[in-house]
Structures are given as structure tokens and as C-alpha cells.
Specification:
This protein is mainly β and about 140 residues long. It has strands at about 10-15, 25-30, 35, 40-45, 50-55, 60-65, 70-75, 80-85, 90, 95-100, 105-110, 115-120, 125-130.
Length: about 140
Amino acid sequence: MIVPNVPIEATFKETAKAVDGIETTWFNTRPVVAFNDDDEPLVIADSRKCLVRAARYTNFAGIRVARGRVVAALPAGDWKVLWKGDGNKPTPLVGWVVYENGDCVGLDADYEGVVTELEPASDQSWEIIPAGGWGEEVSE
């Protein structure tokens, strides 16, 4: 068994349909406690009695270096988020969180109060709009 020398977390893909029928995807994480001799990440089992391979769970998506603890939470001011396919109506961000590693992530909440961290992704379905908007282009 190999214990990682930096914090590593396993990611697990979750999907659910909201009341309005729109499918939402997000990722939950668990700390990787160790790697087995075949270099597979090990996490604490749901029963909390032993270590299991993260790949044991069918929604295992991969591993990444963990951000660490949240060190600050900040108000969002006038920053907004625009969800693509949502009628092009921006909604206010709830706030920002800053992690131990320096990452700063925007927070959005849906109409049910579920908060989502807006993490960059290859299939990004949202855009963050800064306070005051993007402004106008300067003409020369």
C-alpha cells in the first residue's frame, strides 16, 4: 500500500433530473487514503470499516489533486452566471469560495436552494459575467 504525499481525491459522477425535467450532473469527492500495489486509488468504504478500490463504485470518474480546505467565503457582489439554454437570463452568483491551494470558485444556487460550485469543464454549460458586465469594446 502506498500513501500519497499530497492530498488526492477520487471523483464520482452523479446525475439527477430536476422537477422541471432538466438533467443535472455534478461530481462528489472522497479522499484517497492510499493506492494498492496495482496503483489503484483506495477510499474509505460506505460502511466506514475498510478501504476499497474507488473503481468499485460504478460512478467513479477519476482522481485529482485535492484543493484542500476552504479558507475563505466571499460575497459575490454583482457577479452573475448565465446558464446556456436557460433563456439567456443571467442570475446572481451566491458567492465565492477560496481553497487552501488558491483556487477561487463561484457558487450558484438553484430554485430549490441547492448550491453548485462552478468549476471549469470541457462541456461547460455556463458563463460567469463580471460585475458591471463585459463592458463595451473600446474603439480607436
